[in-house]
Amino acid sequence: MARRPRAETMQENRQRLMAAARKAFAEKGYAAASMDELTADVGLTRGALYHNFGDKRGLMAAVVHQIDAEMAAEARRIAESTAPGWPALLAEGEAYIAMALRPEVQRIVLLDGPAVLGDPSKWPSQDSCLHATRDAVDALIADGTLLALDPEAMARMLTGAALNAALWVAASDQPDLVLPRAVVAFRQLATGFLAKPGPGLAPTRSGPQIRGLRTTSP
Question: Where is region (Disordered) located (predicted)?
Answer without folding.
Answer: 197-218
